[in-house]
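Same chain as my last thread, 276 residues:
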Amino acid sequence: MEVSNVHFSRRFLREEVLPTPFCPGCGNGTIANAFLKAVMDLGHEDLSKFAFVSGIGCGAWIVSPHFRADTLHTTHGRAIAFATGLKLAQPEQKVVVISGDGDLAAIGGNHLIHAARRNLDMTVICVNNWIYAMTGGQVGPTTFTGDRTSTTPFGNPERPFDLSRLVTAAGANYVARWTTAHPVQMSRAIKTALIRRGFSFVEVLAQCPTAYGRRTESGGPVVMLEWLKKLPVRKKDASIECKTPTRDEMDLGVFADRNDPTFSDSLSEIVSDIED
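reply #2:
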């Protein structure tokens, strides 16, 4: 069934805050569109069954203030911590965290890996643009080695995190990585993440022409999208060997798809044993 853009926006978006604050060529609009497409494909008429949490950064603005839904716009790096309390207090809600790589993997890094280790029942969508885009273009935990940023003017000496492999190793039930140049695959991965019990994580590589593209001389949005299109796609069930992410070898696809017991399952079993 086709849905007009006007109907689409009135169902899911707060039109009073449009147009968005995102820079021209930013990938965040594509991510919002892919997410809402997944929600529609799952048969939701609105976002009343969802509770959204975001941190600080450009990616956090995808949710707040744009989605017509219950949202928590939290302190820097604490989105997953807030989401954990929210899920335990209201287990009937589908809790979704949408935020950036700096927020989720730097100051929020411990929350990320321990939520995956516990297999908490939530979906996390990480917008990875390889830089702190909103606060001045500083180096981040996913910035490629050698990249020049405002805090690494002579090149980044550090190795970047491979977030999808990190979260897979920590124990998440579902992990996938796509890009804004792969909107169909991204939306399908988000759809799977929303229905998978346990911790699900979708990493989206997104162009940032204003901060990352300009500072690293990676080009404008068209050039960056052409770069993302060329990234290799993993074969299904391929081995997950350890590798340092590079500009041309960040592989895409599904990294984990399992049905291990969730944190809520474990708690319920303990409570049942106590009551018996």
